[in-house]
């Protein structure tokens, strides 16, 4: 097996969320995080989704991620006034 598989896990109380993803299904995994955050029956918040999304983007970066990071790095507090 030549393909690398990433494992990301979150344990909250009795619930365990385990995500397996590779480069090809990275975006689908990000969408799944949003679905979980929107589900009121799960103890999975938008904060959880944001933190795990960051970990996925760090593990499997794309060119778009690099461009966004460069743009955000150039912002200062004055840009928000």
Describe the overall structure:
- With 81 residues, the chain is an alpha+beta fold.
- Helices cover 47% and strands 17% of the residues.
- It has helices at 26-38, 46-59, 63-73, and strands at residues 6-12, 15-21.
- A hairpin with a 2-residue loop joins β1 and β2.
- The chain is flat, with a radius of gyration of 15 Å.
- The N and C termini lie far apart (52 Å).
Describe the protein's topology:
Blueprint: E1 6-12, E2 15-21, H1 26-38, H2 46-59, H3 63-73
Antiparallel strand pairs: 1-2
Helix pairs in contact: 1-2
What is the helix fraction of residues, given as a range? 40-55%
Number of self-contained structural domains: 1
How would a crystallographer describe the biggest sheet? 2 strands, antiparallel
Order of helices and strands: EEHHH
Write down the overall geometry: flat
- Helix/strand-derived category reads alpha+beta
Distance between the termini: 52 Å
Q: How many beta-strand runs?
A: 2
Across the major sheet, the strand order is 1-2
Low-confidence stretches: none
Radius of gyration: 15 Å
Q: Mean of residue pLDDT?
A: 84
- Beta-strand content bin: 15-25%
């Amino acid at each position: 097996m030549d393909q690398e598989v990433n494992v990301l896990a979150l344990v909250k109380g009795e619930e365990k969320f385990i995500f397996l993803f590779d480069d090809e299904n990275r975006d689908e995994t990000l969408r799944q995080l949003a679905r979980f955050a929107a589900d009121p029956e799960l103890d999975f918040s938008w904060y959880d989704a944001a933190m795990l999304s960051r970990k996925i983007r760090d593990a499997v970066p794309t060119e778009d991620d690099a461009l966004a990071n460069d743009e955000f790095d150039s912002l200062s507090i004055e840009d928000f006034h």
